[in-house]
Amino acid sequence: MSEKRTEISDIGEFGLIDKINTSTKVRNESTVLGIGDDAALIDLGHSYTAVSTDMLLEGVHFDLSYMPLQHLGYKAVAVNVSDIAAMNAVPTQVTVNIGISNRFSIEAVEVFYQGVHAACENFNVDLVGGDTSSSASGFVISVTAIGAIDKNKIAKRSGAGENDIICVTGDLGGAYLGLQVLEREKQVFLTNPEMQPQLEKYNYIVQRQLKPEARMDIIHELADLSVVPTSMIDISDGLGSELLHLSKASGLGVQIFEDKLPIDKQTYDTGHELGIDATTAALNGGEDYELLFTVSQDDYEKLKLHADIHFIGHMHKESNSSIMQTKGGNTVPVTAQGWNHYKNE
Amino acid sequence: MSEKRTEISDIGEFGLIDKINTSTKVRNESTVLGIGDDAALIDLGHSYTAVSTDMLLEGVHFDLSYMPLQHLGYKAVAVNVSDIAAMNAVPTQVTVNIGISNRFSIEAVEVFYQGVHAACENFNVDLVGGDTSSSASGFVISVTAIGAIDKNKIAKRSGAGENDIICVTGDLGGAYLGLQVLEREKQVFLTNPEMQPQLEKYNYIVQRQLKPEARMDIIHELADLSVVPTSMIDISDGLGSELLHLSKASGLGVQIFEDKLPIDKQTYDTGHELGIDATTAALNGGEDYELLFTVSQDDYEKLKLHADIHFIGHMHKESNSSIMQTKGGNTVPVTAQGWNHYKNE
């Protein structure tokens, strides 16, 4: 390999920050002052400011043996933008802190920031701050996203009403099955390093895991249609867990229908191949970063022809009863079996 | 030890977040929505929003063998509040992300958050978000602070004018020498675990290292005196490095006087004992989190009797010349020799 490798110690922290600064563009008028002072300055006028933050840790949230650094930078921004979207807000700024060990070169950090910048461009947000630290071990990322929202358009978790229709965007379960495929290929590689990964037929679900998108397109379309969701959350831990968050916050029960869950054919087929039920992947897999929201029945007409919004059930008044009607006609409770990183495995 | 120890896996991430939520109070009217939704909501009306973020990593920024977890929680908030103060802004909200390994119990995390809450109370800010993750190794903290500031009261790094007076608050070099004392006692302990640390005579400087304060008192006093600094920065990397930031951003040179540097007697005495020049500690030590700012000569009368603001020099027009006049009457260049975590040691 003759690729250039510059040690971070060669240019120091300030040199590294300079490199990041010079590759940063400003896109929002509200960004009064970006990187380079003690704090960024943001002018949001009369709206509310939404703030969301998330940490991603190597070995817990991502595995660099199959996660390209550029995708990692993209994903770190996208998952925070997704949280801002889930308030029905429009993201405007992000800050990115990273901790990196000596095993990463300047070039590796630059590739990571290429992903950060690509996400900033795609979601129209400004990178306005953050620092870089050395880490004793592993790659650590913490992102904070800031957004603006009209005071009368907020979608909290708590606003769902009785008989409101439960909607999800996109399709579910793919990111989880994509991760299973990547894990399997990694094990094959560890056993026989000459084997090349066979990922072509899993392209869609692998992409769902490695480069998730925040559904800002849906937020803008809802605004165009004058639909304000009565409640909303993004699907990071799995549909089941998120449904229970809406149920608890809104004080209502949930009824969904298994045959209404949007699941891609590649997700089904891969689930079948790996012996994982696609419905289980959709309910518990997580990391799809689709939006789960409720709308008043009055808004159904405006949304019914939208190709990427799916109606999976409704809210009901029995707050202790959150259930799914299966394809076989049975009724099963909705449960939160999302990730629990703290369990000893 | 019969202290209670609850494993984090016993209550899970949601249980841990619930524990943090229920111990969180809201102090600012601008906090419309705090922890518990996808994002916090903040209403800052007509002012600018200042945003600052910092990451603290175990083994790089702190050593848990002498850093009590409660102090760590306090410091993590204080250093971000200090960045907001350095814009002449008033902090209103913070988010706190932590990554923790299995070696920490629920009780340990609660003690950390006691420190977070104590800092929130002291600096009158609201904890509005953040997540907890497991970490493959070590304790990782990332804090983002948000503040508000009148548009005409901002103090950037870039506003200093020719002949403006250079001011620093408090005293310098103590946090660095406190760290040297803690490191020495750690080595003694590792050699002979029966030795108890002898820290009484170093109480002040050890406190400077372990529990630094953000100088919000100064920000409020400057407002009361109707003084808006022409430029400002907080001293995290050392006075020399921060002076050069002001110099570069403002396009002016700096002249300071060694005999004007505020240094506490305990800092002098400990420097003498350890063979470290106190002026060097003040210039390069860092982590004092005092404020360095410039004011117009017209404002000198308003500040001259302030017991905790010290006038150490002035800005001049030769932008390539930043110098210190020593006690011996010599002139030496001001340099940035702050921490470089990336150097292989």
SSE topology:
The structure is a homodimer of 345-residue chains.
Chain A: H1 8-22, E1 31-33, E2 40-42, E3 48-57, H2 69-85, E4 90-100, H3 106-123, E5 126-129, E6 132-134, E7 140-149, E8 165-169, H4 174-191, H5 203-210, H6 216-224, E9 231-234, H7 239-250, E10 253-257, H8 265-274, H9 278-284, E11 291-295, H10 300-303, E12 309-316, E13 322-325, E14 331-333
Question: Mind explaining what this structure looks like?
Answer:
Chain A has about 350 residues and is of the alpha+beta class. Chain A has helices at about 10-20, 70-85, 105-125, 175-190, 205-210, 215-225, 240-250, 265-275, 280-285, 300-305, and strands at about 30-35, 40, 50-55, 90-100, 125-130, 130-135, 140-150, 165-170, 230-235, 255, 290-295, 310-315, 320-325, 330-335. Chain A has a 7-stranded mixed beta sheet, sandwiched between helices. In chain A, strands 3, 4, 5, 6 and 7 form a 5-stranded mixed beta sheet that branches. At the A-B interface, helix 1, strand 2, strand 3, strand 4 and strand 7 of A face helix 1, strand 2, strand 3, strand 4 and strand 7 of B.
Query: What's the assembly state of these chains?
Result: homodimer
Fourth-tier CATH superfamily name of the largest domain in chain A: PurM-like C-terminal domain
| Radius of gyration based on Cα positions of chain A | 21 Å
Would you identify the CATH architecture of the largest domain in chain A?
Answer: Alpha-Beta Complex
CATH fold group of the largest domain in chain A: Phosphoribosyl-aminoimidazole Synthetase, Chain A, domain 2
Largest sheet of chain A: 7 strands, mixed
**Shape annotation of chain A:** globular
The domain tally of chain A reads 2
The amount of helix of chain A comes to: 25-40%
Please report the number of helical segments of chain A.
10
Distance between the termini of chain A: 37 Å
Query: What is the overall pLDDT average of chain A?
Result: 90
Structural class label of chain A: alpha+beta
Q: Estimate the strand proportion of chain A.
A: 15-25%
